[in-house]
TrEMBL record:
PANTHER family: CCR4-NOT TRANSCRIPTIONAL COMPLEX SUBUNIT CAF120-RELATED, MITOGEN-ACTIVATED PROTEIN KINASE KINASE KINASE 19-RELATED. GO terms for molecular function: ATP binding; protein serine/threonine kinase activity. This is Protein kinase domain-containing protein. PROSITE patterns: PROTEIN_KINASE_ATP, PROTEIN_KINASE_DOM, PROTEIN_KINASE_ST. Residues 3-273 form the Protein kinase domain.
Length: 370
């Protein structure tokens, strides 16, 4: 495909990214703008590898599309290898977070995390590992609602394949970004699908706090960070502002043992992502949409209420005021659940009963669940 190079919009350690437009002779179905990633043809092994990986992966709506590659001779006499990619007008998710100056809302985090996981599940199902999941490699497409897609497959590898040469730091070889590296990558030079899941957890923490998962100071001393990641039981701090489901989701991502870490496919079924945004918009209140469990995970937040046989036979349940007035209450009714409602259990159940025959044909009061 013939194309015309535009202004520079980014650069990395080995490549530069420019805007690109298809030549007038190109078919009309080509996008009006693309991003072209270019590097010296003699140093293009990583970029050529990315092109091969994208070709083997094929089309996926959650992965940045590739429109082909080419060699060009510049006026300076330099020969460049170029890969034409889908253009993300919103930049990276890291750029978006920085420009906002504040963390994302939980609804936004859920939406973006679901999209990233869908792309990772696809990549893993094709037998690949991304190896560099981070907000800088998640691109934003503001087409009616910030859609995100995963990009930059220059470090991707086949699962179960011996590690290709990585970034050398002293006597160590690292693949990816230290801030997002998993314990097994630090300790055993192991980069498998579980490593992508750990990195995703770090990305979620960053979306929720606006700061790197291990704190800003960790960037200044990579070796100290490697020790924190690889030694002991420490994991990134779980953001307090997240819901209980969000915290549990992160704990599944941050299992130190990769064999116990949840897979991308499993995480897509976690209740943190099983939230129906349409229900929330229609009902107006998150609490209403969340009031009924959607899968077995949801039952972890329900409180099991136990009552002694005596309290049921007496037809009443104790309130917290009984404990204050009678210190012997705790020992005498240790098997009872303390309820703040002083109405009897029989009366409470009676309020739920109705002599009228229910009409199951109407659907106005039903809520769609998964």
């Amino acid at each position: 495909m013939d194309w015309v190079r535009g202004r520079e919009i980014g650069h990395g350690g080995f490549a530069t990214v420019h805007l690109a437009a298809p030549a007038k002779t190109c078919p009309s179905d080509r996008p009006p703008l693309m991003a072209v990633k270019s590097c010296d043809a003699a140093l293009s092994s990583s970029l050529r590898h990315e092109r091969r990986v994208l070709s083997e992966l094929g089309d996926c709506p959650r992965i940045v599309r590739c429109f082909g590659d080419s060699l060009t001779s510049e006026r300076s006499g330099q020969e460049l290898y170029n890969v034409l990619l889908e253009y993300a007008a919103g930049g990276s998710l890291a750029d978006s977070l920085k420009s906002r100056g504040k963390p994302l809302s939980e609804a936004e985090i859920r939406r973006h995390t679901r999209s990233i996981l869908e792309s990772l599940e696809f990549v893993h199902s094709k037998g690949f590992v991304h190896c560099d999941v981070k907000l800088q490699n998640i691109l934003v497409f503001p087409n009616g609602g910030d859609e995100v897609k995963i990009a930059d497959f220059g470090l991707a590898k086949r699962a179960d394949e011996r590690l290709l040469k990585g970034r050398k730091q002293g006597g160590l070889e690292w693949r990816g970004t230290p801030m997002y590296m998993a314990p097994e990558s630090v300790n055993c030079n192991e980069y498998e699908p579980a490593s992508d899941v750990w990195a995703l957890g770090c990305a979620v923490v960053e979306m929720a706090t606006g700061r790197p998962a291990w704190g800003s100071r960790a960037e200044s001393n990579a070796y100290a960070l490697m020790i924190r990641i690889g030694v002991g039981d420490e994991i990134p701090e779980i953001p307090e502002g997240l819901s209980e489901q969000g915290k549990d989701f992160l704990m599944k991502c941050f299992a130190k043992n990769p064999e116990k870490r949840w897979t991308a496919r499993m995480l897509l079924k976690h209740p943190f992502l099983a939230f129906d945004d349409e229900v929330v918009r229609n009902c107006g209140e998150v609490e209403f949409a969340d009031s009924s469990p959607r899968c077995h995970f949801d039952f972890q937040d329900w409180v099991s209420m136990q009552c002694s046989r005596t309290s049921w036979e007496a037809g009443s349940l104790w309130s917290s005021s009984d404990m204050d007035s009678d210190p012997s209450f705790v020992g005498e009714h240790a098997t009872s659940e303390v309820w703040s409602d002083s109405s009897s259990a029989i009366n409470r159940i009676g309020k739920l009963a109705s002599p009228e025959k229910p009409n199951w044909e109407g659907s106005g009061g039903w809520v769609a669940v998964r």
